[in-house]
């Protein structure tokens, strides 16, 4: 089974001009493209095997793709089957039966395959972890959480109108390798994704072979289904490393707004750390997009908070909430989260000089309507029970470049957010 690699040791800590210590990310930068005469790399064995291994699910997706309007009904039915409004201990339908029968993958081997596929692309961007520790290190390894709207393939190619992004940069066979490379570079213990429309044929088979247990909750009326040659609906996905956590409880939540069911979803799971036996709740969501829907998002946020109140027994269980909230920090839904009795704080504020400001952007793209630079993605955490020990810095404007995102270097219009968490206090019995 794949073991989570050791984090960089404190000897590697560096201080930059801002006074924050930066940890260079592990040596996973893509090599410069080989000269034209270089032999072609070996064919991507693991990547190909992943697609083949998910045969049943994939053929389901294919059937769905060719079904036109019927697709929405089929997936809506599926979503309803998986939907529950409160926590329910039914993990049996969260794990694909395939997962247990697949051989583990060496992450280095998969990374090499991704690099081989990507050898004609420019090198990936360098991002460093900022050390945010204020006290002695915990005796347990931190919990690394990645939040990322990976951009649904059908939306990127069919609806998003990224007018400065060449269509070749969006080719799935390469873009999926850029996404995998990003995940393999930061090696999260928990991965919270939005706009996943290649769960069954790509992420579930590959990530399960890397040791993750995954859950997918599609949007009931995914806009992907309106795109020709779509790969099924997009939705939220949550993965955690099975060698670090045990699933205690899982809830797929279809969000409501003023009691009406909406098209937005969340997944909330209670996990138990195998090292410390400490439990915590992790949730992922993707709220309604676009201007004019601020009150709707606010209502969805209230519904999510209410569900999380129940799941955490009124904040007794520490909580981490990851999401594309589609809301700037000035919006009501942000304020609800910041002032909730769940006692949440937004982790990326810690990267600002005063610790009080969100980053200037988490998404940056150019549509027909013009440039869209916004802060919409957040990692919220229980500030009484958890502390953030490091966070991955964001890409600079220079790295993002004049054509913004997505690009040949970066696969999504949203940046990934990555944080390391530790429990802040010892439990009465001495456990951390
Ligand atoms: N068949 C039926 O009966 C019904 C179908 N539908 C379908 O659902 C869709 C709406 O779904 P809903 O979940 O509310 O969608 P949202 O408004 O939340 O947006 C869907 C996606 O569009 C992206 N997006 C945001 N802004 C723009 C923009 N300006 N241009 C293009 N894309 C953008 C969002 O990405 P990001 O989060 O990254 O910003 C998001 O992933 C409709 O398009 C319709 O196809 C809906 C109801 C009924
Ligand atoms: Mg989007």
UniProtKB/TrEMBL annotation:
GO BP of this protein: circadian rhythm; NADP+ metabolic process
The organism's place on the tree of life at top rank: Eukaryota
Catalytic activity, reaction form: NADP(+) + H2O = phosphate + NAD(+); NADPH + H2O = phosphate + NADH
Annotated Gene Ontology cellular component terms: mitochondrion
One Pfam family matching this protein: Exo_endo_phos
CDD domains attached to this UniProt entry: Deadenylase_nocturnin
Compositionally biased tracts (Low complexity): 20-31
Region (Disordered): 19-43
InterPro entries: CCR4/nocturin_mRNA_transcr, Deadenylase_nocturnin, Endo/exonu/phosph_ase_sf, Endo/exonuclease/phosphatase
Keywords, in A-Z order: Biological rhythms, Cytoplasm, Hydrolase, Magnesium, Metal-binding
UniProt GO molecular function: metal ion binding; NADP phosphatase activity; NADPH phosphatase activity; poly(A)-specific ribonuclease activity
This protein's record includes keyword Hydrolase: yes
Endonuclease/exonuclease/phosphatase domain sequence ranges: 146-414
Cofactor requirements of the protein: Mg(2+)
Entry EC number(s): 3.1.3.108
Localization annotation: Cytoplasm
Biased composition annotated in UniProt, kind: Pro residues: 32-42
PANTHER family named in the record: CARBON CATABOLITE REPRESSOR PROTEIN 4, NOCTURNIN
Protein family: Belongs to the CCR4/nocturin family.
Entry function: Phosphatase which catalyzes the conversion of NADP(+) to NAD(+) and of NADPH to NADH. Shows a small preference for NADPH over NADP(+). Represses translation and promotes degradation of target mRNA molecules. Plays an important role in post-transcriptional regulation of metabolic genes under circadian control. Exerts a rhythmic post-transcriptional control of genes necessary for metabolic functions including nutrient absorption, glucose/insulin sensitivity, lipid metabolism, adipogenesis, inflammation and osteogenesis.
Subunit structure: Interacts with PPARG.
Protein known as: Nocturnin
Gene: NOCT
């Amino acid at each position: 089974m794949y073991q989570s690699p050791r984090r960089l040791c404190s000897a590697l800590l560096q201080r930059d001009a801002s006074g924050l210590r930066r940890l260079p990310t592990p040596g996973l930068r893509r090599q410069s493209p080989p000269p034209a005469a270089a032999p072609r790399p070996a064919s991507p064995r693991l990547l190909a095997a992943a697609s083949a291994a998910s045969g049943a699910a994939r053929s389901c997706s294919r059937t769905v793709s060719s079904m036109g309007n019927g697709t929405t009904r089929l997936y809506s039915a599926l979503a309803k089957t998986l939907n529950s409004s409160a926590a329910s201990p039914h993990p049996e339908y969260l794990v694909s039966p395939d997962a247990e029968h697949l051989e583990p993958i060496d992450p280095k081997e998969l990374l090499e395959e991704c690099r081989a596929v990507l050898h004609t692309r420019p090198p990936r961007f360098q991002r460093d972890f900022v050390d945010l520790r204020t006290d002695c290190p915990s005796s347990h390894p931190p919990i690394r959480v990645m939040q990322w709207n990976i951009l649904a393939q059908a939306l990127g190619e069919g609806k998003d109108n990224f007018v400065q992004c060449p269509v070749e940069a969006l080719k799935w066979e390469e873009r999926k390798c850029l996404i995998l490379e990003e995940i393999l570079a930061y090696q999260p213990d928990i991965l919270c994704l939005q706009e996943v429309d290649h769960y069954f044929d790509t992420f579930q088979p590959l990530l399960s072979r890397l040791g993750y247990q995954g859950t997918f909750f599609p949007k009931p009326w995914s806009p992907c289904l309106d795109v020709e040659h779509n790969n099924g609906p997009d939705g939220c996905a949550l993965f955690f490393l099975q060698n670090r956590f045990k699933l205690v409880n899982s809830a797929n939540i279809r969000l409501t707004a003023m009691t009406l069911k909406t098209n937005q979803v969340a997944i909330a799971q209670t996990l138990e750390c195998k090292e410390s036996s400490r439990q915590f709740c992790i949730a992922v969501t993707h709220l309604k997009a676009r201007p004019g829907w601020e009150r709707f998002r606010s209502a969805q946020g209230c519904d999510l908070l209410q569900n999380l109140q129940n799941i955490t027994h009124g904040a007794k269980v520490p909580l981490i909430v990851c999401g594309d909230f589609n809301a700037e920090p000035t919006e009501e839904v942000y304020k609800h989260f910041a002032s909730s009795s769940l006692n949440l704080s937004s982790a990326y504020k810690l990267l600002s000089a005063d610790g009080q400001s969100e980053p200037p952007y988490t998404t940056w793209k150019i549509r027909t309507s013009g440039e869209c630079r916004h802060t919409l993605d957040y990692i919220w955490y229980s500030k009484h029970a958890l502390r953030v020990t490091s966070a991955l810095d964001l890409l600079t404007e220079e790295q993002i470049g004049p054509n913004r995102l997505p690009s040949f270097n970066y696969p999504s219009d949203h940046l990934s957010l990555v944080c390391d968490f530790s429990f802040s206090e010892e439990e009465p019995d001495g456990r951390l």
